[in-house]
From TrEMBL:
Species assigned in the record: Sphingomonas albertensis
CDD domains named in the record: Precorrin-6A-synthase
Keywords recorded for this protein, A-Z: Cobalamin biosynthesis, Methyltransferase, S-adenosyl-L-methionine, Transferase
Keyword presence, Metal-binding: no
PANTHER family per the UniProt record, alphabetical: COBALT-PRECORRIN-2 C(20)-METHYLTRANSFERASE, PRECORRIN-6A SYNTHASE [DEACETYLATING]
Recorded metabolic or biological pathway in which this protein acts: Cofactor biosynthesis; adenosylcobalamin biosynthesis
EC number: 2.1.1.152
GO biological process: methylation
Gene3D superfamilies the record matches: Cobalt-precorrin-4 Transmethylase, Domain 1, Methyltransferase, Cobalt-precorrin-4 Transmethylase, Domain 2
Name of the protein: Precorrin-6A synthase [deacetylating]
All copies of domain Tetrapyrrole methylase, residue ranges: 4-222
Keyword Metal-binding on entry: no
Major enzyme class: transferase
Top-rank taxon, per record: Bacteria
């Protein structure tokens, strides 16, 4: 039996870890650290830093190469194939390093419940016959760090919030029934598909990291600046993680 602990580590800042998270990491027999290529080498460096900062026991650390999603295939088909490949990679590491069972931990950016697929990938292992018990230690999400960094509430008084992806925003426009939209997994500037007048944006990249970047203000003024800033940061670091909240001003809200 494998006890798989999916551990939310927030945005990579060790100060964001909960006591329960640290306890679970130290109780693990093995922590797997995925490598995502040179362009994102500082992502695994952050995982290494977190482990060095909080581990006080003899937990083994094993790095492995994470499969790459095929960007040429249709999105959902490519993601399904990618998740199959990741499940196979996990199974290989389990067979190699925990052949008799034990406690395995994976460090998940943000929280495993929000736009993360580790729980779905774990289901694939169980479907393949691996005896697996899944435990989740929640983490701080990038959305929480974003609103804290800008010192704003996520919702207006008594109003709903919709969390979506850049792909959905670009294809479907502003979602009906809400005046506040949080956008994750944006490949770059999906807000450009909107009529920007009357919309405010709170944007952040590398949240919680030393090179955190923040911009906020009217979308019609800040949109082009965010696009330029995002491109420059990607060029500098080789990768980018960003997120933003959009909110309609009272004058443009639906009645």
């Amino acid at each position: 039996m494998i006890d798989l602990h999916l551990i939310g580590i927030g945005t990579g800042n060790p100060d964001h870890l909960t006591r329960a998270t640290i306890k679970a990491m130290n109780a693990a027999d093995l922590i797997l650290l995925p490598r995502k290529g040179d362009a994102k080498s500082d992502l695994i460096d952050l995982r290494r830093t977190i482990c060095a900062d909080v581990l006080t026991c003899s937990t083994r650390l094993v790095e492995f190469d994470l499969p790459i999603r095929d960007a040429r295939a249709p999105y959902l088909e490519a993601v399904e194939d990618w998740h199959d490949a990741i499940a196979t990679a996990w199974a290989t590491q389990i067979a190699t390093h925990l052949p008799d069972g034990g406690r395995l931990a994976l460090l998940v950016w943000g929280d495993p419940s929000l736009y993360d697929s580790t729980l779905r990938i774990a289901d694939r292992l169980r479907a393949d016959g691996i005896a697996l018990r899944v435990h989740v230690e929640p983490g701080i999400t990038s959305l929480q760090v974003l609103t804290a960094a800008h010192a704003i509430p996520l919702n207006t008084l008594g109003a709903p919030v919709l969390i979506t992806t850049g792909r959905r925003l670009r294809e479907g426009g502003w979602p009906a029934g809400t005046d506040t939209v949080a956008v994750m997994l944006d490949g770059g500037g999906a807000f450009e598909a909107l009529v920007p007048q009357g919309i405010d944006i709170w944007w952040g990249a590398y949240l919680g990291m030393p090179h955190q970047a923040l911009l906020a203000g009217p979308l019609d003024r800040l949109g082009p600046q965010i696009i330029r800033t995002r491109a420059a940061l990607r060029e500098r670091h080789g990768w980018i993680m960003d997120i933003y909240v959009l909110r309609r001003s009272p004058a443009t809200r639906e009645t």
